Amino acid sequence: MRASAIQPRAPQPSKALSQARANIVRLLAVWDDPLANTLFADNFFLDFDRPHWRHRLEELRRAHGKLQPEGAFEVENSLRGRWRMVGERGWCSVYITMSPTVPPRVQRLEIASTLPPSDAMHAAAVRLSELVTKPTRGSLQRLLSRDANLAVLWDRLCVANILCGASALGEVLSGDGFAHARFRLVGAKASAEVEITLDERTSKVLDLVFRTVS
After folding, report:
1. Where are the beta strands (DSSP E) in 78-191?
2. How far apart are CA 130 and CA 185, in angstroms?
3. Is the CA virtual torsion 22, 26, 27, 28 positive or negative?
4. Angstrom distance (rounded) from CA 1 to CA 140
5. Which residues are paired to 207 by β-bridges?
6. Partners of 193 in beta bridges
7. Helix 150-164 × helix 119-133 angle, to 10°
8. How far apart are the first and last CA of the chain?
9. Residues 6+ apart with CB under 8 A from 96
10. How far apart (Å, rounded) are the C-alpha atoms in residues 171 and 164?
């Protein structure tokens, strides 16, 4: 196996999964009741009803503008897959699971929305990357909201410094644009993700969570 450099078999989407992806893209552009009737499994609207989903997709269009598929269709198996939809502002990660029926229909739909960080959020992320490189308690305190737990966040920052070393701010991974965002930190020793929560009243940092990824 090593000599032949054989690769694992790549999962392939079923025809039903590929068609469901195309139809979800259509619904993200404009809601269509007849299309929804044929696309979703009988139990799909039990957890969240049809008006909820119609409103949810309208909200995504307002937030992101026109959404278009970008990149590969990441197929988990013949009945599950995910892809990215990029808008005029930010993007959405879409995941679908088909039902084990004949014909298969969509029984699970997850849409994770990511909007560009606000100026305050971006500035906080830049300053945090600098503090991971060289932590100082006073500088962290000036960045934090009065409601933040300085002692806990100082400990987290020091651990991030030990694990990552000198760090630079990488890409935004998720977030609502103003209150919550998750960024990649590219460190000399290891990379990490930092999840930032801002105090909506003051735009100062309320909470920080670091997760090393390499």
Report:
1. 80-86, 91-98, 106-114, 167-175, 180-187
2. 10
3. positive
4. 52
5. 197
6. 184, 211
7. 60
8. 27
9. 17, 20, 21, 24, 80, 81, 82, 106, 108, 109, 110
10. 16
Dihedral pair phi/psi, residue 20, rounded to 5°: -65, -40
Q: Under CATH, which number does the domain 15-113 receive?
A: 3.10.450.50
CATH architecture of the domain 119-212 equals Roll (3.10)
Q: Specify the 3-state DSSP secondary structure of 167.
A: strand
Confidence of residue 214 (pLDDT cuts 50, 70, 90): low
E-assigned strand segments in 26-166:
68-77, 80-86, 91-98, 106-114
CATH code 3.10.450.50 region(s) in the chain = 15-113, 119-212
Report which of 97, 93, 91, 92 is spatially closest to residue 109, judged by C-alpha positions: 97
**Tokens found for residue 32:** 């269509």
DSSP class of residue 183? Answer: E
How far is CA 140 from each of CA 125, 155, 195, rounded to the nearest angstrom?
12, 11, 15
- pTM above the 0.85 mark? no
Report residue 125 as tokens. Answer: 């992320």
Separation CA 37–CA 174 (nearest Å): 31
* Residue pLDDT, tens place only, 133-152: 999 999 999 999 999 999 99
